[in-house]
Amino acid sequence: MGSFIDRVAVVTGGGSGIGETTAIEFAERGASVVVADVDIEGGEATVEAIEDAGGDARFVETDVTDPEATRGMVDVAVDAYGRLDFAFNNAGIGGAQTPITDYDPDDWQTVIDVNLVGVFNCLKPEIEQMQAQGGGAVVNNSSILGQVGFASSSGYVAAKHGLLGLTKTAALENGETGVRINAVCPGFIETPLLDSGGITSDPEMRKQIEGLHAMNRLGTPQEVADAVCWLCSDEASFVTGEALGVEGGYLSR
């Protein structure tokens, strides 16, 4: 895959899990990275890891539900590095695990606000900056649950389905601007978010979830990071509006 030297990337939710690993991968390929997160400690730790390895990065505290904050995030990238070439809109939450009839409306709205509205808030300033430059690449983090249902996860499933529609619409609008917009759809990935639901720590639950994938295992953050970087690379120059599964065969069943 080609070098990202002299390129600039923004990663939301960059303080842990898939976002952390992807931010580090961008840096290892030569990009300067703006790490955005509401988690100050986690975001600063990612920046420290990048700098310790000889890379260039900075942290900006960002609540993606706030349009002013996401615009400020892009401004940090442009002020620091003069441009924005790549964006990975990764910040998200899992939400309640409960049937629709028991789902609290406030909890529902929170999941939609972070996982769907938050990406919309990021896309606007990211696309505007990339259009002004004449090009760029955006990857939105959806999920296998953006393509299928999953009992007791209605808020998350609805948000991730909506995110794929948003991705395709943005891709259509920008087909001739030089800005490509794609999504990744990870399967169950071994991250702190997954562990917070007890999946990785409960042996029986883990076995059940692993068995939903043809490869009979969980994915790794690095496998998603590699897919994101490929979608941003020149090797994917004719790819836009795509929902790329990184899911070990989950969707093949």
Structural description of this entry:
The protein has eight helices and seven strands. The protein is α/β, with parallel strands linked by helices. Helix 2 links the parallel strand 2 and strand 3. Helix 3 packs parallel to helix 4.
Provide a concise account of the structure shown.
Helix 1 (17-28) runs parallel beside helix 2 (40-52), helix 1 (17-28) packs across helix 8 and helix 3 (67-81) packs parallel to helix 4. This protein has helices spanning 17-28, 40-52, 67-81, 105-133, 154-173, 192-196, 203-210, 221-232; strands spanning 8-12, 32-37, 57-61, 86-89, 136-141, 179-186, 243-246. The chain contains eight helices and seven strands; from the N terminus they run βαβαβαβαβαβαααβ.
Provide the low-confidence segments as ranges.
Answer: none
Q: Largest beta sheet, briefly? A: 7 strands, parallel
What sequence of helices (H) and strands (E) makes up the elements? EHEHEHEHEHEHHHE
The third-level CATH topology is Rossmann fold
CATH C-level: Alpha Beta
If strands are numbered along the chain, what order do they take across the biggest sheet? 3-2-1-4-5-6-7
Number of helices: 8
How many domains make up the coordinates? 1
Topology readout:
Elements: E1 8-12, H1 17-28, E2 32-37, H2 40-52, E3 57-61, H3 67-81, E4 86-89, H4 105-133, E5 136-141, H5 154-173, E6 179-186, H6 192-196, H7 203-210, H8 221-232, E7 243-246
Parallel strand pairs: 1-2, 1-4, 2-3, 4-5, 5-6, 6-7
Helix pairs in contact: 1-2, 1-8, 3-4, 4-5
What are the defining features of this structure?
253 residues, alpha/beta, seven-stranded parallel beta sheet, 45% helix, 15% strand
